[in-house]
């Protein structure tokens, strides 16, 4: 952070450096669930970023940050956690376009065409009430159930070049979005985006805005991380290759970038004005609503509670076997899970007890060090650790709060 930005935040009282004793080492050392993983934090690629939030008499939030083994240059695959910056940047692009195109909103019906190999079309979306696709509906599906196709469509709408520019404008310098998910995107297909047309209504007869197909011809950003090869072997087309899996051409980010994105959505005044996301009030409300909404609480799109349990995408404080969230607690978050990596980027609040904090964590759980074999230790190591970490920080918050009363 530049010196000027630090001074602005200090003078405004919205950010405080971590001068108090960091509680994370003690919590990790003394807890029977956390300690076995923390003792092998290196092989587990464990990183934690915890931000305590306290409010003054005017209800202004003040932040104090604590870190545990934060390694911005140690790679982790972000998986679905990368969808949050994609979603907010898509909404920001809509807001920018709407300044020149009256009537265009995130709810405007759209059609996506295909003009190149590997691209697919979209004319209908039966998950929406009017059976039409829209940017807002894709954002809902991303935040509710981490829908891969929804992310891919937003990637196509914003495009790799504009994603890079917007990430840079918001000082998310370590975040790279350079491919779709779960469709085998190659360099050539990731560079090409589909044409998109927005319409005035669901009849799709009156075009409102036409965005042609584009091809990104520049150089991809290079990840800042140094160790971009993970594991000792991986499977490719069912064959074992006794070499690490190379992630140099994959999406990338860091925990500070992920938490900064979430914090800028929830607490826009806590980041410099020029780096705040430019959203209209309805789209910001959309993000705030669906970051914490449970799948069964949504009507359009509609999801079964049996197929999508309340805690299915809430790893911290609630991960593991299907079950309800802790009473009185709201979790605004975006998770990621792939290749043995588990990520949760969360804001946890319990208004009745005056508890609120940001907690972001990445953990690698792949004992056999073989990637793509689907033999990861999510259920036995990863999710129990994340659940307990959330509980431990939450209980710490309760203790600190009670001591101050």
UniProtKB/TrEMBL annotation:
<feature type="domain" description="Beta-lactamase class A catalytic">
    <location>
        <begin position="69"/>
        <end position="361"/>
    </location>
</feature>
<dbReference type="InterPro" id="IPR045155">
    <property type="entry name" value="Beta-lactam_cat"/>
</dbReference>
<dbReference type="Pfam" id="PF13354">
    <property type="entry name" value="Beta-lactamase2"/>
</dbReference>
<dbReference type="InterPro" id="IPR000871">
    <property type="entry name" value="Beta-lactam_class-A"/>
</dbReference>
<dbReference type="GO" id="GO:0030655">
    <property type="term" value="P:beta-lactam antibiotic catabolic process"/>
</dbReference>
<dbReference type="GO" id="GO:0046677">
    <property type="term" value="P:response to antibiotic"/>
</dbReference>
<protein>
    <recommendedName>
        <fullName>beta-lactamase</fullName>
        <ecNumber>3.5.2.6</ecNumber>
    </recommendedName>
</protein>
<dbReference type="InterPro" id="IPR012338">
    <property type="entry name" value="Beta-lactam/transpept-like"/>
</dbReference>
<dbReference type="GO" id="GO:0008800">
    <property type="term" value="F:beta-lactamase activity"/>
</dbReference>
<comment type="similarity">
    <text>Belongs to the class-A beta-lactamase family.</text>
</comment>
């Amino acid at each position: 952070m530049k010196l000027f930005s630090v001074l602005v935040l200090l003078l405004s009282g919205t950010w405080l450096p971590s001068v108090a004793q960091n509680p994370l080492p003690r919590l990790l050392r003394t807890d029977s669930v956390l300690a076995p993983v923390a003792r092998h934090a290196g092989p587990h690629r464990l990183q934690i970023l915890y931000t305590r939030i306290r409010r003054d008499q005017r209800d202004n939030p003040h932040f104090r940050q604590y870190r545990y083994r934060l390694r911005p240059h140690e790679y982790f695959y972000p998986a679905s956690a990368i969808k949050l910056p994609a979603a907010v940047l898509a909404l920001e692009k809509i807001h920018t376009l709407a300044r020149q195109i009256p009537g265009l909103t995130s709810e405007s019906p759209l059609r996506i065409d295909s003009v190149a190999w590997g691209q697919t079309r979209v004319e209908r979306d039966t998950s929406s009430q009017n059976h039409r696709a829209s940017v807002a509906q894709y954002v809902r599906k991303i935040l509710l159930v981490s829908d891969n196709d929804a992310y891919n469509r937003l990637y196509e709408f914003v495009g790799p070049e504009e994603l890079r520019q917007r990430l840079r404008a918001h000082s998310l310098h370590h975040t790279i979005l350079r491919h779709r998910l779960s469709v085998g995107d190659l360099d050539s297909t990731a560079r090409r985006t589909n044409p998109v047309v927005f319409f005035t209504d669901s009849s799709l007869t009156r075009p409102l805005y036409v965005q042609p197909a584009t091809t990104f011809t520049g150089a991809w950003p290079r990840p800042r991380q140094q160790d971009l090869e993970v594991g000792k072997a991986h499977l490719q087309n069912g064959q074992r290759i006794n070499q690490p899996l190379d992630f140099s051409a994959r999406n990338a980010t860091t925990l500070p970038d992920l938490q900064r994105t979430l914090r800028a959505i929830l607490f826009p005044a806590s980041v410099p004005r020029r780096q705040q996301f430019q959203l209209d009030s309805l789209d910001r409300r959309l993000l705030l609503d669906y970051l914490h909404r449970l799948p069964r609480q949504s009507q359009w799109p509609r999801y079964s509670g049996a197929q999508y349990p309340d805690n299915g995408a809430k790893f911290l404080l609630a991960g593991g076997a299907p079950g309800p969230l802790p009473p009185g607690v709201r979790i605004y978050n975006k998770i990621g899970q792939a290749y043995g990596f588990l990520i949760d980027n969360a804001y946890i609040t319990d208004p009745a007890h005056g508890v609120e904090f940001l907690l972001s964590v990445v953990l690698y759980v792949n004992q056999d060090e073989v990637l793509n074999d689907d033999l990861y230790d999510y259920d036995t190591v990863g999710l129990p650790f994340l659940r307990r970490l959330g509980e431990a920080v939450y209980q710490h918050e309760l203790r600190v709060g009670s001591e101050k009363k």
